[in-house]
Write a structure and sequence with these properties.
Elements (H helix, E strand, L loop, with lengths): L1 E9 L2 H16 L5 E7 L3 E4 L16 E3 L6 E4 L3 E7 L9 H17 L6 E3 L2 E7 L13 E12 L2 E9 L19 E2 L11 H17 L11
Parallel strand pairs: 1-2, 3-4, 9-11
Antiparallel strand pairs: 2-6, 3-5, 6-10, 7-8, 8-9, 9-10
Helix pairs in contact: 2-3
Length: 226
């Protein structure tokens, strides 16, 4: 069983960290169910374990938190659906790479509910959308924007942190950092792509696609061998 927890309003970041720490310990001890927590944060930046200080362009713009998850700098704020995943990888093959792949595929399946084609790119964790309406990149490739970021941490094979999906955040807030250390590509959202999607709409899509990708314990992730 996986508990789905949805918080209204804006959740304090430290409060979220404290909850995840306690819940992960309880899951690892067999004292609590797995949990998926959907929420929003007030505007803030988080630094992953690979964050480079030069990528924090405006350190005084919003609070900055050391997240201790994988990845670099990212932005969280209103209009962005945060998906914290507290799941037991002991039931899912204990393969970190495949687990991250499964999170990306889960986001792609949810975006497909809105006729958005999400893509996974080698060397760029997260989910991307092609932008034929924008100029090509410096290297001559099609322009792409990031719509979802992923960064996890494991303790005793239980995950925490997770996914951020841009529904209708203030995209200019990403300007205070180099998102995920990537300069050649931009950031977008569902509303920026012209879709009148709400957080609640996305929640429905995430729930409906979860079981196919992540719901069954001990089942290999589609596309991975474990």
């Amino acid at each position: 069983m996986v508990e789905w927890k949805i918080s209204e309003g804006l959740t304090d970041y430290q409060e979220a960290l404290d909850f995840m720490e306690a819940r992960v310990a309880a899951i690892a001890a067999g004292e609590a169910e797995e949990c998926v927590w959907l929420l929003e944060h007030p505007p803030l930046y988080t630094a992953g374990t690979s964050a480079k200080i030069d990528d924090l362009k405006e350190p005084d713009r919003f609070p900055v938190y050391e997240a201790k998850r994988g990845g670099q700098y990212t932005y969280h704020g209103p209009g962005q659906r945060i998906v914290y995943v507290m799941l037991d990888l002991g039931k899912r093959g204990r393969d970190v790479r495949c687990f991250v792949d499964s999170l990306e595929k889960w986001v792609i399946a949810a975006l497909a509910e809105f006729n958005i084609d999400g893509h996974i790119r080698d060397g760029r964790v997260g989910v991307w959308v092609e932008r034929p309406d924008k100029p090509k990149t410096i290297s001559g490739g099609m322009a792409e924007d990031k719509i979802a970021a992923i960064g996890i941490r494991l303790r005793r094979w239980v995950s925490f942190h997770g996914i951020s999906i841009n529904v209708e955040p203030e995209l200019s807030h990403f300007g205070g950092i180099v998102p995920c250390g990537i300069t050649e590509y931009g950031v977008t959202s569902l509303v920026d792509l012209g879709l009148p999607v709400t957080l609640e709409d996305l929640d429905v899509a995430l729930k409906s696609s979860f079981d196919h990708v992540l719901g069954e314990a001990k089942r290999p992730v589609p596309g991975c061998s474990v």
